[in-house]
Amino acid sequence: MDAGRFTELLRTHRGLIYKIAFAYCRNPTEREDVIQEIAAQLWRARDRYDSTFRETTWIYRIALNVAISCYRRTYRHGAREVGLDTDAFATEAVEPSPALEHLLRVIDGLRPLDKALVLLYLDDNDHAAIAEVLGISTSNVGTKLARIKHELRASVAMDVTDAKEDSHGAR
Q1: In contact, 21 and 34? CB cutoff 8 Å
Q2: Rounded to an integer, what distance in angstroms lies between the CA atom of residue 46 and that of residue 55?
Q3: Roughly what angle, to the nearest 10 degrees, separates helices 14-24 and 28-45?
Q4: Residue 39 to residues 7, 76, 105, 129, 171: CA-CA distances in angstroms?
């Protein structure tokens, strides 16, 4: 892949790269570093790209590996809070609803691989595509998604119960 084609690839998939960086890096400086590292890793791997796979699968795999590695380094050192940024999901300047804020907080609390799985799922990737990106079986994707959905439902139910108790106590 020549430099012109590579630049076009980055331009075309910029949103995907930024979304992954936003999901794993709260700090703007670290986020920019991760974006640069993703671009560098894509450049290094450009000659190994297998055109039998979709470009997005290749980009997701590299970008997630870089972002998760950064997350783990940061988390291991306990230096900074790393969280999901609501701006990564906005298509225009809109204040996120409380429900979206809550969902993002719950997703933010997931383990790095589970967070990647949810990001891929929310991007409308099917189980086979998610499995291909994450290097796990399709059935494992289904199992993990079912577990995560169960956790999300339980978390929302708990918050609804807490909100009802708070409203009754406030009378």
Answers
A1: yes
A2: 11
A3: 130
A4: 10, 24, 28, 22, 55
Angle of helix 3-12 versus helix 55-77 axis, rounded to 10: 70
Cα–Cα separations (whole angstroms), residue 148 to 22, 49, 98, 121, 142? 21, 31, 20, 11, 10
> Which residues have C-beta within 8 Å of that of residue 89, sequence separation ≥ 6?
19, 96, 100, 104
Query: In the prediction, which pLDDT does 30 show?
Result: 85
Q: Are 104 and 119 in contact (CB under 8 A)?
A: no
Which has the minimum average pLDDT: 5-14, 86-95, 143-152? Answer: 86-95
- pLDDT value of position 69: 84
- Return the ∠ at Cα 157 (arms to 102 and 144), rounded to 5°: 75
Question: Closest by alpha carbon to 107, among 63, 158, 149, 144?
Answer: 149
pTM: 0.63
Residue listed under structure tokens 């969280």 = 83
